[in-house]
Design brief:
Elements: H1 8-13, H2 42-49, H3 62-77, E1 81-82, E2 89-93, E3 106-114, E4 124-130, H4 152-170, E5 178-184, H5 192-199, E6 208-214, E7 225-228, H6 236-243, E8 251-254, H7 263-267, E9 273-277, H8 296-315, E10 338-339, E11 342-344, E12 353-358, H9 363-366, E13 374-378, E14 381-382, H10 386-395, E15 401-408, E16 411-418, E17 420-421
Parallel strand pairs: 4-5, 4-6, 6-9, 7-8
Antiparallel strand pairs: 1-3, 2-3, 3-5, 7-9, 10-17, 11-12, 12-13, 13-14, 13-15, 15-16
Helix pairs in contact: 2-4, 4-8, 6-8
Bound molecules: zinc ion.
Zinc ion binds near residues 188 and 285.
Amino acid sequence: MSRYIVLPLMIVALVADARPAHAQTAGADGTCPAHDGTVGTPIEIVRYLADDALEGRFSGSPGEACAAEYIARSFAALGLEPAGSDGFFQELELATIAAPHAPAGRGRNVLGLLRGDGGAADEVVIIGAHYDHLGRGEFGSTGEMGEIHNGADDNASGVAAMIDAARRLSEGARPSRSVLFIAFTGEELGLIGSGYYAKNPVIPLERTAAMINLDMVGRLEGGDLIVYGVGTASEWEAILPAANVEPAISMAFEPSGFGPSDHTSFYASDIPVLHLFSNVHGDYHRETDDWEKIDVPGLERVAHLTANIAREVANRPGRLAVISGVGERAQRSGGYGAWLGTVPDFTPVDHGVLLAGVTEGSPASEAGLRKGDILVGIGDADVGTLQAFTDVLRAHRPGDEVLLRFIRDGRALEAPVVLGDRANRPR
Ligand SMILES: [Zn+2]
């Protein structure tokens, strides 16, 4: 999951001058952990990708290259067809004007195709998951800079569920439509890999039936699986329960097709999307997001659910009918303005922003906000949604004194706060 919400069309317009592809030599320095080339179980996949040796899979880094090679070998072992522009890979420029904080360098999406065997095999259902993360926290971390951010939940878990869904779908009867599996680079830097794909699809977007995004699915722990995008096609409300076989997962539906992850790049192109998400936690974007904390049975159930959803969509006689414009689309990138220090909980609430916690020493903690509070206003502005909250905060400057309005235990409360500076927040 990216902290940076960007406009995908802006990004893709700016990566047009891609140089000819050249092979990266992942692990040439001997830093890639050994892999026997077989397909791991979900937790084995998470352990590989979240190994310290991969140094947090920062986009364009040798560790990220190890992860890309590992995913490509897993696709090959499953018999998926290489579907990139260079074998399984689709190479792209990372730094753009829309994502100026990205490192200069190149990243790779990894693409594998399970060819359908029905009359609509030239159409695809995409299952995607980003495989990059924060490296040593140079960028996007709310934790300790310099420490390796392994990103076991964010998003080794999504890649593991994607590969396991590929295994399930490649066993038994082939679905009618094809299924394309894509591991994206550059998500944490602002949806760069998925934005590039949406501009340079290997199968035309007109023949893309749906996109299912897996980003942070490793911490189910008996809670709801949050499913974004349910409003992007009316058929989802029937498909999801049908796909949710025993032992069923408790799901919370959210209509919006826009959010801070790769499905946004596809919904912006009018493709029905889903984003499966097991919610934020205290290790989000911190060096403590490690494999030991993954809920293994929960992750396997998400993989099973994902395969079932994809099969349902792939085998339907007709295509889903997209409903456009559901949710709010971010209008610009960045995020170096005023800082409050709240950690949003993505569980849907009717109105406002539910807090998973506040950062210690932040303006929000100084103001007395805490986990479970629902923020509903900043000054005169209403913050009915997370996007509205982000927009309101961006409209303010560090040092502004404002009144926070929030709900605690059903009571409306207020507290004054002096907004901090995002660039100088404590680490
Ligand atoms: Zn993330």
